From TrEMBL:
<dbReference type="InterPro" id="IPR036491">
    <property type="entry name" value="YugN-like_sf"/>
</dbReference>
<protein>
    <recommendedName>
        <fullName>YugN-like family protein</fullName>
    </recommendedName>
</protein>
<dbReference type="Pfam" id="PF08868">
    <property type="entry name" value="YugN"/>
</dbReference>
<dbReference type="InterPro" id="IPR014967">
    <property type="entry name" value="Uncharacterised_YugN-like"/>
</dbReference>
Amino acid sequence: MKPIKSKLENEMIALNEAEDVLKSMGFSYGGNWDYDHGYFDYKLDDEEGYTFLRIPFKAVEGELDKRDTTVQMGEPFLLAHKYQIGLDDHAGAGNLSGSVNQFSEPQDPDAIIDKKWIGIAKELVQKAEAQLLK
């Protein structure tokens, strides 16, 4: 995980505004939320794992399933996982295990982040700041 300093941190923003702006930039927030907190994610890489720019937020007025909610933005960060190549050492055989454990453990759940993604993430955060902090 690599934190990205941002003027967004601790800012109060209407969820619908944040969602509209960040989705138009390519961020998603589909299943990445609970009723009181969530993340806007931007997928940067998925070659041998994945690298996401993640902007956390938490509800300060209302719940996240309603568009009139106010959220407080957190510090953006980069998150990288590297996929395990080959067979999963901890996989169990059988129908029940296969139906429950469909995915192998990541080879490195906190993989090293390539410097090119750090630069791109900083640019994306600056664009988000410019759009959301007018």
